[in-house]
Queue: 3 jobs
Job 1
Amino acid sequence: MSFFSFGQEPEPTEATTLEPSSAVPAAAAKQLSFDGEEGRTLSVIAEPVSSAAGVLYKRHAADVTFEIAATDDMEGENLLAQVVAQTDLIPGRYEGGLKTWECSIDLIDYLSSLEPGWLRGKRVMELGSGSSLPGIYCLGQGAAVDLQDYNEEVLHLVTVPNVLINATPIPTDAPHSSGTIEMELDYATLSSLPVRFWAGDWGCLRDAMREMPEENKYDVVLTAETIYAAESHEKLLDLVMTIVKPGGVVFIAAKSMYFGCSGSLPQFLQLAQKRLGAACSIETVWVETRTVRREIVKITF
C-alpha cells in the first residue's frame, strides 16, 4: 500500500527545552531543490502511524538517530547531537521537527472527517511540518502541498523521507515483529509529486512570499503544535495573512496550554482576534479533554 493507505513514538505531554547558547540570526527562507538527484536512493526503517484516516508511514525515530550518529560528532557542539541527547526544543535554533507531535494526528483525524474530496485540487501549506503527516495526508487526497520547517536538516532527515515512504509501495512480505519495515527510497519519485519543501524562519518566509501572485496563494494552511512560544505568534500571523487566499482557511492544532513555555492557545487566539478582527472568523472545531486539553481552531479569511 502506498499513497496513501500511519506509530508514532510515545510523546511527552510537554516539551523540554534548552536555552540557545548565543543569539543567532533567523534562518533564511530557502526552497529545497532535488533537481538532478534522480539516481539518489536512501535506505530507511519505516513504521506505521494509525489515525481515523487509516494508516500512513513515517521514518522510525531510531533510524533518524542512527543517521545523525553516523554522520555527526555526537560528542561535540553539533545542533542535532544536542537534540538527540537531551532536548525537544532549542529556541531560535531547533523547533522540534524530529518528533511526531500528537496534535498532528488530531489534525489528520479532523481533516478526514470533513466532506470527501474537498482537498482535491487545493493548494496546501503545512507550517512547522516536521514529520509532515498532515501535509502528507493532504497530498494523498489530491492536494498540491508545500511543507515548511525551520531546520533544513529536519526536512532532509524526516520530512522528505516521510513523503517518499508514503509514495512508495509498502513491502508486505517481510515486516519486522515490531511492525517496522525496511524500505529503499528513490528520490526520482519527488519529480512526479505536487510537493515542495521550504526551510527557514517564518518572518523570512513571509518576506520571500510577500509578492506572491494571488493565484499562487494557499487555499488551506495547516499547523500543529507551533504556538508554544509567544514570541513566534506575530510571525505566524503575519505569514498566514501574507499567503492565504481570500476565502482560504487555516487550521491550528494545539494544546490549550504549554506548561514551561511562553505561549498558549488562548493567548494566540486573543492576538489573532485583535490583528484580524472582522477580516476573518475564528471558531474551535475540535476539542479533546480526556488528557491534556487539545483543540483545533479554524480561521476563515
Job 2
Amino acid sequence: MKLTQKHQEYWRKNLRITGVLLAIWFIVTFVASFYARELNQVVVAGFPLGFYMAAQGSLVVYVLIIWFYARYMKRLDREYGVNEDED
C-alpha cells in the first residue's frame, strides 16, 4: 500500500510531536531525578524542588503531556480528515 503525500505529512507531524513530548517526558523523569541534589537547593512552597518534582511536579507534567497530545491529535485528525468523531 502506497501512502499518499497527505498521509506521509500526517505521520510526519504525528511522529514529530510524539518525539518532542517523549523528550519532555525523559527530561522530567530522568534528568530531574539525576540532578535532584542540585534541585534541592531551590525551595518551592517550603519543599526542596527535587522533592516537589518527584512528588507532584512530574505528575502534573505527565497529565499536561497527555492533555496536549490528545488536543493536538484531535486537531490534526480533523485537519487531515481522519477524525473518528460522530457529528
Job 3
Amino acid sequence: MKLIKNMVNYKLNVITAKDLMKYAGEFNIQLTARQAEKIASFLRGKNFDLFDDNVRSNIIREVAKITGPKTAKEINKLFIQFTK
C-alpha cells in the first residue's frame, strides 16, 4: 500500500495542466485550460499527502476557489476514489 500511496502523491505533486485536462476528460469533470493551469501551479512541488483527510480538505478548498464548488466536489470524489 505504501508504494501506491507514494505513487499517487508523487503524481499529485508533479501534475501538469495537460495531465489535469486529460483526467478531467476521462472522468467527465468540467475544467478549463486556465483552471487546470492554476490548479497545477497550486499543487506542483508542494509535497501534499492526498491520503491525509485534512490535507485533502485544504486542497479541495483551494480548488473550489479556482473552479467553483461544483467542480471541486467532483474532484474530491475522484480523490477519494484514488485514496480508498
